[in-house]
Amino acid sequence: MPNRKTAHIVSHTHWDREWYLPYEKHHVRLIKLMDALLDKLDEDPEYRSFFLDGQTIILEDYLQVRPQQQARLEKHISDGRILIGPWYILQDAFLTSSEANVRNMLIGHKDAKRYGQPAKIGYFPDTFGLAGQTPQLMRQSGIHNAFFGRGVKPTGFNNTVADGDYESSFSELEWEGPDGSKVLGILFANWYSNGNEVPADPGEAKEYWQRKLADAAKYASTGELLFMNGCDHQPIQLDLPEAIRTARELFPDTDFVHSNFIDYLAALESSLDRELSSVRGELRSQRTDGWGTLVNTASSRVYLKQLNQRGQAMLEKVAEPLAAYASLLGAAYPHDLLQYAWKTLMQNHPHDSICGCSVDEVHREMVTRFEKSRHVAEAVADDSLQSIAEHIDTTGFAAFGPDAVPFTVFNTTGGTRTGTVSVEVDVLRHYFREGIPFGEMKSRVKQLELADWIVVDSKGREVDCTITDLGLQFGYDLPDDKFRQPYFARKVRVELEATDVPANGFSTYAVVRSASQSAASAERSTLVTGDRTMENEYVSISIENDGSVTLTDKASGKIYSNLCVYEDSGDIGNEYMYRQPDGETPLTTRNTAAEITILADKPYEASFRVVHAWDIPKGAEDKLAQEQQELVWFTGRSSGRSKETVRIVIETTLTLEKGSRGLKVSSRFHNQAKDHRLRMLFPTGLASNVHQADSMFEVVTRGNEPSAEWTNPSYCHHQQAFASIQDERTGLTVANLGLNEYEVLQDGQNTIAVTLLRSVGELGDWGVFPTPEAQCLGEAYAELMIIPHGLANPEAAYNEAYQFQVPWTGVQVGLHAGSLPPVYQWFGWQGEGIAQSAVKRSEETGDLIFRWYNLTSSGSELAVTPTFAYRQAYRSNILEERQDAVEAVQPGEALRVAAGPAEIVTLALEIADTGNIG
């Protein structure tokens, strides 16, 4: 390392919008900080620049209160003195969906461009680990670097190291994603506050800089040393120019510069004269003792994760594609509404928010934000469904009479889909405007006979279904051109098996009057084979006396036993980390008698109810409260569990659909216990040292056993849609809805343990912050799916898990002609080992955006066949910027696009005139 050093002092504040204080209290402090910053920049040219934490939402939050300051902000941003973007918010990397990460970058860039150019800085100062596809996400955004504070353990230049997974010789490293994308990684080895509160007093400054320069040089690969002047909610240092002048006088051999990330990167790259360590894939602090990974935020306040999963799915997998399809028929694409919904959702995505590691007031407000975002998404989806419904030709159902009631089932996933669908339709409706006396109107609706109604598909074939009479219902329309239109209706709920609904398409059915009684006399099929057994074409299910499940995969003959056992253990940790009491043996429902009854026996679906009445400890010993109050670090606590117990009644529903390759499992219970963790266990019995899990644009392979450095008895991981294990022949995938924590137990069975609930009473970290609502007392639920599969094509099981995330949607349709046939697909596609991620419209170009990602480490090819007119197709990046044109082999044939190993592929179609489909 050269003797001459440069100390790059970068001023910033890491701004958690909400954390140990509610949002608005942090908000007030933000206003004060920004006022002081603008004044300082106006008054002192020596105070060169300030990095605004990489998130443009700070500008929104400030201008919401100080709109009159916009011109001052714009001036300092355009002058390069305030650096903004590239993100909208600083999100958690593992608890937010793939598409949420893309929208975060896309919206952050858009908002930054209103003021100038976004800083091309991959900024992750306090993210709780980083997903493996981050380098590709950066490169597709025009960013060639990543600054982060967690995930890699550096050893320092003076130590001898062998490069390996999650190790780096320096604070600078080369980080490579699974697709081969590489960025320059900068680890805040001494944290993102290592240049905080620089003394201006010579005596204090000498001691400060002797220590700080040595600490930075220990890890740095060059003489370009980075010092971060700021910390969490840190006010700006007003006397920094004076402090820098003092440092220059005391240390003439070091150049002290009030710098920024752009200048620092340029200096660093020009001075690199040695090979950096290469780190590949996820950065999750796996080469540490395991007590500081913060992985158990994945199970803190599980209800937030479930609300997030529901909201993300509704936005990206339902509202956006339906709005895109409706726009092809002439409807306006609601860019602004969707962006508002995304922004509202993403305000819950910062690490201290979605991770569930803040004070109770923060998470109460999050619930409202989740609901607000979802309500907008649902409204967009409903409007789009109505627009599409007007174009569907249902005249074929007129043969069943004028009172036929068509409805359409939409599959907005990327694969053909079969499953049980529930749609509510009005079989008779009388509007108040018709002038019929109220009594007569209600009488007509009530007296409608429903006994002979059936459901048929678009070919007139009767479909197995259950029609439930919902009786007289009040409803109303909200027309665009007149006042609200109330009515009374006779509403029914139609439940049926929708078979082979095309990907990115729909199938239409109708409720009609039966012409004969043949349906009633026909032999009724069933999936129930005994008082505790059921089976379909793919699996057979047996429920044991203790409520556990034995599942047989018919294709391979593989039997999985003791599935769905509950495990409960104490937790004396906090919102960040799980900590089991010393010496405790977890309780389980194994060999505990359960009440088992048939819940449903339908031709297309069977389900059983399993009920456990289970006594578990009421909470931790009183000693835990004392340890919390005295700030005893969670690893040093000695509290055990209370001897007093409470009874928890857990109702498990096991559902097998006729065409399903797996078993759906739902759990409901009223939690009355504190300081504990509840999990569901899935022993696989499969011999493997590794397993797979769904992550951001990736199915990542992880080792089952921790590294030698790991001392934490718990070895939990993040998941999104699923976790999976396979051996040489077979595999088992466990999908979930918003249950983001799992562990593969080293019990000889490679059991996948999925956390359903974790109850704790404190925030943790640097102070005493009680969080009684984090005990999650009250009603709780969990939804999972067990999917066996063969080794040859695990992606088929992954596709089932992805479809499990997405709700079916349906809409009642009028009896009319239209340009769309009753069964339709907007585009077809094929690609080995590839998953569909997004369908939307670009606000910048109006292009129709399709996105996929390659699940495998092998190259593949996409063949995409739109059924609508378009002018030109382009490869695009995640910022929806057109790149190379893509030509079909022959006019009207499929567009063929190469998909490299683990590549994220975005296709942009320039759309011809709308309204010309059909």
From TrEMBL:
Residues 297-370 form the Glycoside hydrolase family 38 central domain. Keywords: Glycosidase, Hydrolase, Metal-binding. InterPro entries: Gal_mutarotase_sf_dom, GH38_beta-1, GH38_C, Glyco_hydro/deAcase_b/a-brl, Glyco_hydro_38_C, Glyco_hydro_38_cen, Glyco_hydro_38_cen_sf, Glyco_hydro_38_N. PANTHER family: ALPHA-MANNOSIDASE 2C1, MANNOSYLGLYCERATE HYDROLASE. Belongs to the glycosyl hydrolase 38 family. This is Alpha-mannosidase. It comes from Paenibacillus cineris.
